[in-house]
Write a structure and sequence with these properties.
Layout (H helix, E strand, L loop, with lengths): L3 E4 L2 E4 L4 E7 L9 E6 L6 E6 L6 E3 L7 E6 L4 E6 L8 E6 L11 E6 L1
Parallel strand pairs: 2-10
Antiparallel strand pairs: 1-3, 3-8, 4-5, 4-9, 5-6, 7-8, 9-10
């Protein structure tokens, strides 16, 4: 069973940057596309970005396009989310998983952007 551990969140000011990491146990990690999702208070979890198995293809929600960059290092079983030009509306708990939510959800990492 693959376990996911998100890290790298924190408190930043508007316009700041953070780099999130998603570390996974298990040898099947590189067999699947991986996505980042986020959930703000009283809102549903939403898709943020995804990266293909090889890392060659990436996909982004319109709200983060041009500001966030997703990448992966299969040798390290890790997926990253570089977040630049952060806005208060990016405040949320960020999670990683396959786009279909195949693995158990981790605890996420809190990102708070102050105005």
């Amino acid at each position: 069973q693959v376990q996911l551990l998100e890290s790298g969140g924190g408190l930043v000011q508007t316009g700041g940057s953070l780099r999130l990491s998603c570390a996974a146990s298990g040898r099947t990690f590189s067999s699947y596309a991986i996505g980042w999702f986020r959930q703000a208070p009283v809102k549903k979890r939403e898709f943020v970005a995804a990266v293909s198995r090889s890392g060659d293809s990436t996909y982004y929600a319109d709200s983060v396009k041009g500001r966030f960059t997703i990448s992966r290092d299969n040798a390290k079983n890790t997926v990253y989310l570089q977040m630049n030009s952060l806005k208060p509306e990016d405040t949320a708990v960020y999670y990683c998983n396959t786009p279909q939510g195949m693995y158990s959800w981790g605890q996420g990492t809190q990102v708070t952007v102050s105005s």
